Amino acid sequence: MKHKILSIILIGVLVSLPGWAQGIRKSVCAGSWYDNKPDALSRQLDRYLLQAKIHAPTEGIVGLVAPHAGYVYSGHIAAHAYRLVHGKNYDTVIIIGTAHRYGFRGCSIYPKGGYETPLGVAEIDEALASALSKASGFKYIPQAHAQEHSVEMQVPFVQKVLPEAKIVPIVMGAPSKKTISSLVTAFSKTLRGKKVLIVASTDLSHFLSKEKANAVDAETCALIESMDTDTIIKKMGRRENIMCGGGPVAAVLLYAKKIGNPRVETLKYADSSQVGGDESSVVGYMAAVVYAGAGSTHSFSLSPEEQTNLLKIARETLERYVLNNEIFQPETDNPKFLSEKGAFVTLKKNGELRGCIGFIEPVLPLHQTLVQATIYAASKDARFPPVTPSELKDIDIEISVLTPLKKIENPGEVEVGKHGLIIVKGNRRGLLLPQVPVENRWSRQTFLQQTCQKAGLPKDAWKSGADIYTFEAIVFH
Prior knowledge:
This protein has 17 helices and 19 strands. By secondary structure, it is of the alpha+beta class. The protein folds into 3 domains: 21-296, Protocatechuate 4,5-dioxygenase, Chain B; 304-402, Glycoprotein, Type 4 Pilin (2-Layer Sandwich); 406-476, Dna Ligase, domain 1, CATH 3.30.1490.
């Protein structure tokens, strides 16, 4: 009878916790930190990703830094990082969170099963999780994952932008130099030759005034951009209020250094007051991208400040031309603005296209290219009448700075979210910018077909006889 009662108790436990019995970690954030309805959550992520513009190259990315607050506060910030890897060829995403609810030393590596969200179950890469555990000596500590949000908040984004990728969730306890070093050593031993992305999950300063938080966060962003891991680790060891995920961030940066040719670029910064929070007590959020390896060097990039300045040039050009028929002649000593670049200017009125014209080939300095493209988009796009003075207040400007064209033989090389397309046959040529298929949720095939139709060609012309060119763009608004 005793054994029978024990069996009934055990069966009851297994029935009441079927997910955990199978290694499925159930969501603890759905319905509070983000929407618990699959369709609503999917639409929310789509909206964030569409609003986030690509500010940086997409090649050579080994890591991301993304916040983990409720999506209403930080989802639009995280999207700037995840937009860069949308549809990329990663087999596994390692997500390193930081322990908020359970104190321990070392790291806890989730071994098997999956993380469940309203979008489904993100499958664990069990082989890699096991290899990392063996190489680092870190085991699975159930309590570290049970209520922890720092890993979970990244999972829906991974499911959205890399739906075929598996994950390895890691929760880091006290961020000691030894713990971080052990994890990085394990990365070096196990990740070589693998298509792996590492996400460091962190918010920045907590509950300072807006003015103080912005100042502290600027210093923290500078530390991350300069990859000053020694200072980051020391500050975390002293429990300074700079960020909660300093250990995960340091681990990603140190791993990038081991690969070689490392570089970090901040993509977006904001604080909680920008969505209606109290300015006397805010939390800071950043999105950043970490590059490494031979493919990480990019010949041209634009900082957020430089993008803002180019948008100002385009805005003043538009207003002077529409109001006074005056051609703006901006002066600059920025060598990037003086370099010859192809670029397009897209005008939108209340979210709808109002004009888009540009130059494919780099024939003028960038700032002059933008002046010409802005004027043409406002006055010479045959699809629309010229922009009028009464419309100016409703016009938004988007700029796309192009890389040189590359002719390809295999259409399978086209990556949605990365490439723009030009298809040429005879005297017909069609062009679509990289953001167009993303905004319209096209597949690669649809993208190719639509570019053919833009050229006035049959939609399947890309399959035979047409020349296909790809290019990339730095897109901002």
